[in-house]
From TrEMBL:
Record PANTHER family: ATP-BINDING CASSETTE SUB-FAMILY B MEMBER 10, MITOCHONDRIAL, ATP-DEPENDENT PERMEASE MDL1, MITOCHONDRIAL
CDD domains from the UniProt entry: ABC_6TM_exporters
Keywords associated with the record: ATP-binding, Coiled coil, Membrane, Nucleotide-binding, Transmembrane, Transmembrane helix
Transmembrane segments: 37-57, 77-97, 156-174, 180-198, 267-284
Molecular functions (GO terms): ATP binding
Coiled coil: 318-345
InterPro entries according to UniProt: AAA+_ATPase, ABC1_TM_dom, ABC1_TM_sf, ABC_transporter-like_ATP-bd, ABC_transporter-like_CS, P-loop_NTPase, Type_1_exporter
Every ABC transmembrane type-1 domain range: 41-323
Domain of life: Bacteria
Presence of keyword Nucleotidyltransferase: no
Segments forming domain ABC transporter: 357-591
Name of the featured protein: ABC transporter ATP-binding protein/permease
SUPFAM superfamilies registered for this protein in UniProt: ABC transporter transmembrane region, P-loop containing nucleoside triphosphate hydrolases
Length: 601
């Protein structure tokens, strides 16, 4: 914890994944593109061709120095020049092919990985999103996957080519002069040890960078989506200071990574130059002793450059590799997270639903040790309007969350038409339900796009009928573009009542067998509320409906009313019978309508 800011290092509730190694990262990327075998063959041929062509120019140089110059064969110089130019052209062609093909393969891998990550996020249960911040998840899908894009588009081709070149050149140098080659290769174990030492630290440094980027994204998402709240409380300076703290953490993380790189790269360069010095000294001595020719030394130095270039490039690419590995770990934390709400194989597909819902001794808690429902029994009769009332925190909305299987109870069971919810397909269950919540969720699009979200194939006539039923048609037509009018992000261009009526119209259009109204009329004025109530009388006929309300005026026509308090049902009945009983319901009613006292309505 720094400066009062929570540190989200891993997905909340998920252990660090075991699949974070660089080898596993490459294996997963190539596993996802194994079907592109044609491109892989072209890439392999191009890489082999590049590595073989790298041998040509040093050979031409050796031949020129040892044969053409001493023998003064001027005619051979033309062929040497043509050989060098031809080799350069072929190198350009095969480098182009390998670059394009490897980039295509890599981008396809990242494309599939990003889609897989997003699809997996969609499949996770609601409790996962309760534990993790939106900005951090956004950072993993965008920034972290972007790090992998950087690797596969530039680093992957270089690594594969350099590895093949290194092996081929080392083998040829051993054939030329195994003693000199072994002396040169003696510096490479030191390079490997140095690389291993720094690679772990560089990866940790880059993971801190990714985490700090996620914190910046979190802050941006929180503040920009709540800009009206900020301005209403004049907290612009306060939020700017908090953002500066997160930005400073990101800056410090980047500086720490740069410091590691600033130490690592010069060490590798010193080892490379040590190898060059060894070749110069021993090669010059061998030439002076008559054991080696000048051309051989020149060629050997050229091959040494080919041998060391991959090492030098790898030291430069190490940042990209470790940054990608850190991003890969964060991606795998998501992909290895399992949903707590799991659909059974061959789950039941609901058809001809009546909507009879029962809770059997259900116990549920969002947090361990803090029960919301305890041994809870409840029945929602088919084709009836059932209402639940109670104070805030009584567990009313929790009942709807369990009915829709956003969560599963820790104990007990819930059935619909006699079928346990755990045996029913999730999509099949939720297709039967229309939900209108007090937390209105609208997408950035047009009015029509929001209305047909649950029924994309709805006709214009069906859309208008649903809008009229929700008393939304008139205000919709007051906009210049009518149903094609944009509503802005989260419906910012609509009033609270308009958002609520649009949400109700969306549920009506879905034509569900079971309707849940969770404070559905909370944002409506008195006149609109009465119009909606009149519409709902006809809409809810022959359907099963659950109405949750604080305002008792909205549920007086319900067939049955349950009074809930601290996860327990205190009483149930009709409005009139509950008033006559003189219990908790009557107390709530008198608090809201003190002038009527206990008069029945």
């Amino acid at each position: 914890m720094q400066h009062g800011i929570p540190n989200y290092r891993t997905v909340q509730g998920q252990a660090k994944p075991k699949s974070g190694s660089i080898w596993n990262m490459y294996k997963r990327i190539f596993f996802q593109v194994r079907s592109q075998w044609g491109l892989l063959v072209i890439a392999a041929v191009s890489i082999i061709a590049v590595s073989l062509l790298e041998f040509v120019i040093p050979q031409l140089s050796q031949y020129t120095i040892d044969r053409l110059i001493p023998e003064k064969r001027y005619d051979g110089l033309v062929w040497i020049a043509l050989g060098v130019l031809g080799t350069a052209v072929l190198l350009a062609i095969f480098n182009y092919l390998s670059s394009i093909v490897m980039a295509t393969i890599g981008q396809n891998a990242v494309y599939q990985l990003r889609n897989q990550l997003y699809r997996h996020l969609q499949m996770l249960d609601v409790s996962f999103f309760d534990r993790n911040r939106t900005g951090d998840l956004m950072s993993r899908v965008t920034s972290d996957v972007g790090m992998l894009q950087q690797l596969v588009s530039s680093g992957m081709m270089s690594i594969v080519t350099d590895l093949f070149t290194f092996i081929a050149v080392a083998a040829y140098m051993m054939w030329m002069d195994w003693q000199l080659t072994l002396v040169v290769l003696a510096t490479f174990p030191v390079m490997i040890i140095t690389t291993r030492f720094f690679s772990k630290r560089i990866r940790a440094a880059f993971k801190k960078i990714q985490e700090s980027v996620a914190e910046v994204t979190n802050h941006l998402q929180d503040t920009l989506s709540s800009i009206r709240l900020m301005k209403s409380f004049s907290t612009e300076e306060y939020e700017t200071e908090r953002f500066a703290v997160r930005s400073r953490n990101n800056m410090n993380a980047n500086i720490a990574a740069v410091k590691l790189r600033a130490v690592y790269e010069p060490i590798i360069d010193m080892l490379i130059f040590a190898g060059l010095a060894i070749v110069l000294i021993l090669g010059a001595k061998g030439t002076m002793d008559g054991k080696l020719t000048v051309g051989t030394i020149v060629a050997f130095l050229a091959y040494l450059r080919l041998l060391q270039n991959p090492v030098r490039r790898f030291s430069r690419t190490l940042n990209t590799i470790q940054q990608s590995a850190a991003a890969y770990e964060r991606i795998m934390e998501i992909l290895e997270t399992k949903s707590k709400v799991v659909e059974k194989e061959n789950a039941l597909e609901l058809a001809n639903v009546r909507g009879h819902v029962q809770f059997h001794d259900v116990s549920f808690a969002y947090n361990t040790g803090v029960p919301v429902l305890d041994q809870f029994n409840f029945e929602l009769e088919a084709g009836k309007v059932t209402a639940i009332v109670g104070s805030s925190g009584a567990g009313k909305s929790t009942i709807t969350h369990l009915m829709t299987r956003f969560y599963d109870p820790q104990q007990g069971s819930i059935t619909i038409d006699g079928h346990p919810l755990t045996d029913v397909g999730l999509a099949s269950l939720r297709r039967q339900m229309g939900i209108v919540s007090q937390d209105i969720v609208l997408l950035n699009g047009t009015i029509r796009e929001n209305m047909v979200y649950g029924k994309p194939d709805a006709t214009d006539e069906e859309v208008e009928a649903a809008a009229r039923a929700a008393h939304a048609h008139d205000f919709i037509m007051s906009f210049p573009l009518g149903y094609e009018s944009p509503i802005g992000e989260r419906g910012v261009k609509l009033s609270g009542g308009q958002k609520q009526r649009l949400s109700i119209a969306r549920a009506i259009l879905k034509d569900p067998r079971l309707i849940i109204l969770d404070e559905a009329t909370s944002s409506l004025d008195t006149e609109s509320e009465k119009a909606i109530q009149d519409a709902l009388v006809h809409l809810l006929a022959d359907r099963t409906s659950l109405v949750i309300a604080h305002r008792l005026s909205t549920i007086q026509r319900a067939d049955r009313i349950f009074v809930l308090d601290k996860g327990q049902l205190l009483e149930s009945g009709t409005h009139e019978s509950l008033i006559a009983n003189g219990g908790k319901y009557k107390q709530l009613y008198e608090l809201q309508f003190p002038q009527k006292q206990s008069e029945p309505v």
